[in-house]
Write a structure and sequence with these properties.
Blueprint lengths: L14 H11 L2 H17 L7 E5 L12 E4 L12 E5 L3 H11 L1 H10 L9 H20 L6 H12 L14 H4 L1 H8 L2 H9 L1 H6 L5 H13 L2 H27 L1
Parallel strand pairs: 1-3
Antiparallel strand pairs: 2-3
Helix pairs in contact: 1-2, 2-5, 2-12, 3-5, 5-12, 8-9, 8-11
Length: 254
């Protein structure tokens, strides 16, 4: 993280940051953990005091069923907010992240590798923290590109997504939402996904993808290697390491 070390007492938090912290602390144990991470982030990246953090659940927002969080950039047309929004699943507790570890083994392995651990060592807290740090990393990236407009960003993002293995020009899966790894993983486990694979088996075989599961795994791996995602992953690792160091120092003092 950038060397802008400030404690909460040395930094006057904005009303938005205080609202974010309050919302998270009212959102149960998972929310409290995110609040701790967010306070750590603010010491290094004060610009993230201006984002809006929305604690939620899969019941409130079905998009949080297959992931732990996502962002809605302020520049996105259907974001009615004037600031970037970070939506995180707090309402389904640690069980939600335990389920993600089990249901998305490829993603778990990739995230664990980023954190320098084996997949079987990853806990729900590890995954939740990594996702919060990752999505915060996306918010940081947008804060560093204030002049970016929606048409430019949309073109950049779709160019990235169209480079991924699951995309086949001229077929139905050319929508941004459908090409996200969690969406592809869910789709490929359905009858529709199996049929989609069978209809395009020749094209997928050219990419060395011989089963629907191969497509899902390849999509996850390629997506994680997109520069925009690597940037966010790196920030997540830095965030969790900084938090771990802080807890270690507090333990030493105690």
């Amino acid at each position: 993280m950038p060397e802008t070390h400030k404690t909460a007492s040395e930094t006057e938090l904005s009303s938005q940051a205080l609202t974010n912290i309050e919302r998270l602390r009212e959102a149960g144990e998972v929310g409290g953990y995110f609040a701790d991470l967010y306070e750590e982030i603010l010491q290094h990246v004060p610009a993230l005091a201006d984002i809006a953090i929305i604690p939620s659940s899969k019941e409130i927002d079905p998009d949080l069923t297959g992931t732990g969080g996502f962002i809605l950039p302020a520049l996105q047309p259907h974001n009615r907010s004037v600031v970037d929004e970070l939506h995180m699943n707090t309402g389904d507790g640690w069980d939600h992240y335990a389920r993600l570890i089990t249901e998305r083994p490829e993603s778990t392995a990739l995230n664990a590798a980023r954190l320098g651990m084996r997949p079987e060592e990853m806990t729900p807290e590890d995954l939740a923290g990594f996702i919060f740090g990752h999505e915060s990393g996306h918010c940081k990236w947008f804060s560093e590109h204030p002049s970016l407009d929606w048409p430019t960003w949309d073109k950049m993002r779709l160019s990235d997504l169209y480079s991924l293995p699951a995309f086949l020009p001229g077929v139905s899966l050319d929508d941004e939402t459908n090409l996200l790894p969690n969406k592809i993983a869910a789709f490929m486990s359905t009858n529709s996904g199996v049929r989609y694979f069978a209809e395009n088996e020749a094209e997928f075989s050219k990419k060395g993808l011989l089963t629907p599961l191969d497509v899902a795994a390849a999509q996850d791996a390629a997506y994680h290697n997109l520069p925009f995602e690597v940037y966010a992953d790196d920030f997540a690792v830095e965030t969790l390491q900084a938090h771990k160091n802080k807890l270690s120092q507090m333990g030493s003092i105690a």
